[in-house]
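== Sequence entry ==
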Amino acid sequence: MAEPAATLGEFNFAGDDHVVPFQVEGLDVRGRAVQLGPMLDAILERHRYPAPVARLLAEVVVLTVLLGTSLKFEGKFTVQTKGDGPVDLLVCDFSTPENVRAYARFNRGLLDKAVAAGQIEPEQLLGKGMLAFTIDQGKFSQPYQGIVALDGATLEEIAGTYFRQSEQIPTRVRLAAAELFDRDEAGKPRHRWRAGGLVAQFLPEAPERMRQPDLHGGDGDTAGSDHKEDDAWAEARSLVDTIDADELTDPQVGTERLLYRLFHERGVRVYEPREVFDRCSCSREKIKGVLKGFSAEEIDASQEDGTISVTCEFCSTTYRFEVEEVAQAAE
């Protein structure tokens, strides 16, 4: 069933942490756009990540919520990078319909050296490795995973490569993250993280129109291809490419205003926004279930003064168990 469109007279701006689906009928384009504020800031500030790490993780979160909110089933969608650079792991989980959690792993020594040398571009921080998209619909189905090499200057370029190779749908992804320095209601200086993004896909009624030259090469080069890029998609892609990173993160622009700037001549239609939340799926019972699989030797090695402490990497919540409690559960 199609999502109801907002109509004139009852329109409200979505605001931060709401994914806005949109459609440009004149260009056969559908997509999603978002600006993340308090939800993202809570995730990043919880871990106090260095700025280069926070910026990368913020873009992964944006990409995850843009794609995850399009799922029509119950399950989990995960975006993850693994590389040999200073930031060797970025991961974001989206549990339908609205819950997000994320964390990053990095080598402090290697990161400090990279920053000192001015090597803070995404490809330098991530190194060689892979970007994986995983869809898990639960225990009654096999997870699906799509993988692409970390072969690009930015995460949006790498994501674009994935869509060209795996989805076979002309797709343009834009991602941006920024630090905001301002003052709170009391006039005190404060620091916040913001991020934004947009994904646009060409979905004409005639499938043969999707046979674009940019599906056969990373830069849209038409050499060696008999297919001419569809005029509608060429226009849409060019419009999306005009977006400045600042527009994606500026709280004064807003998602709907950005979409209007891009597509008003073609008539952009926006649909009901989807709010996303910073919510972890960990729980005391889940952690206890993991500890039940420990052997007596592993339990003994994990305890300190008769207590086992487990901290969730995503939300930093610490769960404490008495050794007797865990040992009884493991029997």
Remarks:
- Confidence is low (pLDDT under 50) at residues 214-224.
- The CA atoms of residues 292 and 330 lie 4 Å apart.
